[in-house]
Specification:
alpha/beta; five-stranded antiparallel β-sheet; about 30% helix; about 325 residues
């Protein structure tokens, strides 16, 4: 959705209407899940996708009709085996799509959302539906404060890491995350980190690389990183502030530095702490931490060896396994 903001705003500022198509709910083997978006413009071109194939073509056609009339509607697509064949799809299931016309009156809302995203805040899109129509659209950001003229406080509780559609009949609220202000702190600027940063960015994680070596803590090696910090491993808190929403990945050049950073990481409220290394190294690290006064509850926070066990050996494979684990962790929040 946040990518669509940059293409919808210019059209709205030109006085053109845009129909935003949002998958509210899906089940079975539909090609896209809740939170998928497609924008349909007046000249017929589109941005984003709700799954492709014949279903997307049907949504596009309905979007053109909605755009001519204005307003919004909710459409249900139930793909039984026969309908799957008729629609030319290879997978079946149910999909519910909201189509809503955006115009010049929505410019300030989209601009405010874009500004919140640019400020690296947590941002959620929130839409109130009544009788199958969108009656107000807004967003929550930061500490889940509501950007609405009126909204029940319970809506803030729907701000999660995944899309939520809370309904009573046809009425209710749809809330989905647009941008996460969480930061992934990668300690160590070696080969695995170089492979890891672009993959993390490709799945919408913000990334800071931290390393004391000035020749490696350089944007030339990490052009995709949001921030690069050249600081010592012994006093991390002097350089960065880690919050309860942030992730810590430890892959420094040596065992001692790993232990030094890990001991500091366990004193932060970070939602995820992971440390690279062999099982022998990890066992020695656990013993070291025990000697430093850390208990089993502290060690239970550590993902070590880091990453999902996919058998990867190369920096790129290890980077993929780490990214997969972070995606898994994020989806459970």
């Amino acid at each position: 959705m946040k990518e669509l903001l940059t293409v919808m705003l210019p059209a709205l500022e030109r006085g053109e209407a845009v129909v935003l198509c949002t998958v509210l709910r899906s089940s079975g083997s539909t090609p896209r899940g809740a939170g998928a978006h497609m924008a349909v413009f007046e000249d017929g071109h589109t941005a984003g996708t709700v799954g492709g194939g014949a279903v997307e073509l049907a949504v596009m056609e309905l979007a053109r009709q909605v755009g001519r009339k204005g307003g919004s509607c909710v459409e249900h697509y139930r793909l039984t085996p026969n309908e799957v064949a008729d629609l030319g799809m290879v997978c079946g299931g149910d999909m519910t799509v909201l189509l809503q016309t955006l115009g010049t009156a929505d410019i300030s809302l989209l601009q405010a959302m874009a500004q919140a995203v640019a400020a690296q805040e947590n941002v959620w899109l929130a839409i109130e539906l009544q009788h199958g129509r969108a009656v107000q659209t807004g967003f929550c950001c930061g500490d889940r404060r509501l950007q609405f003229a009126h909204a029940p406080e319970g809506v803030a509780a729907l701000c999660r890491s995944h899309a939520v559609w809370q309904t009573q009949g046809e009425d209710g609220w749809y809330v989905e995350p647009i941008h996460s202000g969480a930061m992934v702190y990668v300690f160590g600027a070696g080969h695995v980190s170089r492979a890891l940063v672009p993959i993390l960015k490709s799945v919408d994680f913000a990334v800071t690389v931290y390393d004391p070596r000035i020749d490696l803590a350089d944007p030339v090696w990490f052009p995709q990183a949001d921030r690069i910090v050249c600081g010592d491993f012994e006093s991390v808190a002097d350089h960065i502030r880690i919050t309860a929403e942030d992730y810590i990945i430890i892959m420094t050049p040596g065992h001692e530095a790993d232990r030094t950073v890990l001991a500091q990481a366990l004193r932060t409220p970070a939602t995820y702490v992971g440390c690279i290394g062999s099982r022998r190294k990890i066992a020695a690290t656990k013993e070291y931490l025990a000697q430093q006064g850390f208990g089993e509850a502290d060690w239970a926070r550590v993902h070590a060896p880091i990453g999902l066990p996919i058998g990867g050996q190369t920096p790129a494979e290890i980077a993929i396994s780490i990214t997969a684990q972070l995606i898994e962790h994020r989806s459970r929040q």
